Structure formats: C-alpha cells, structure tokens
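Thread: quick sanity check before group meeting

JM: Hey all, I'm pulling together slides for Thursday and realized we never actually wrote out the predicted structure for the chain we discussed last week. Dropping the sequence here so it's in one place. If anyone has concerns about the input, flag it before I start.
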Amino acid sequence: MAKSEWKLERRPPSKSTSKPAFAGLVAELNGEVVGYLLYHFGYDSDSAARNLQIVDLYADLDSRKRGVGRALMTRAASIARKEGAQELVWAVYRANTLATGFYERLGAQRITDVFFMKLRSDVLA
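JM (edit): ok, ran it. Output follows.
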C-alpha cells in the first residue's frame, strides 16, 4: 500500500483530565480506523536523554503487512525527533513473536539486561 494512502492523525488527549497520561496517533483508511499508536515522553537518566515511550501499537488484522504499523512507527519517530527525543522505547511480551519480528525488521534492538517490575500504588499507602 502506498504511503500516501494512509491518513495518519495526531489526536489530542481527552479534555476530561488536566494531566493526560498519553498522546496518540490514529491510522485511518477510507474513513475507518485501522490502527493506533499510544505514547508519552520519558527520560533515560543513564543516557541523559529524552525518549518517546510507546505504550501500545495496534493494527487490525486486515491492515497488517500492508504498512500501517510502519507508518505509525515512522510518524512516532518523527514526533520524537521534533520533541528532542533521541530514541523510541517500548515493551514486548516474550510470547509475541509476530510483534518482535516486525520491530526487528524496522531495525529495533532487544534490550536484554533490564526487566520490568510493577507495584500497585496502594501497597505503600
């Protein structure tokens, strides 16, 4: 699918909150939403650099392998550069080999020397 056929739109967060948790991109084809990418900005203290953290990337089944994922990632990289971020970072479930292959084809590298942890906010109340 030609790059110009995708309509990629940056949508502002909901007005219902004064502190939005993320921003998003929506991909449309013929007026139908076929994918989205949610992101926020962060900071890597080890490299002393701003980054764009991808929260979620989704492309509907019919749009996969037709360029929508690459188009969304390309736009996210453009936004990152414009905002002074040096890299894009995100998490991938180990079992999601389809996504891992897609990201590696884009040129992404696995980071294997860190892992994620989580803690409910009310645990330390």
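AS: nice. The mean pLDDT is 90. The domain at 3-106 is CATH 3.40.630.30 (Aminopeptidase).
JM: adding both to the slides.
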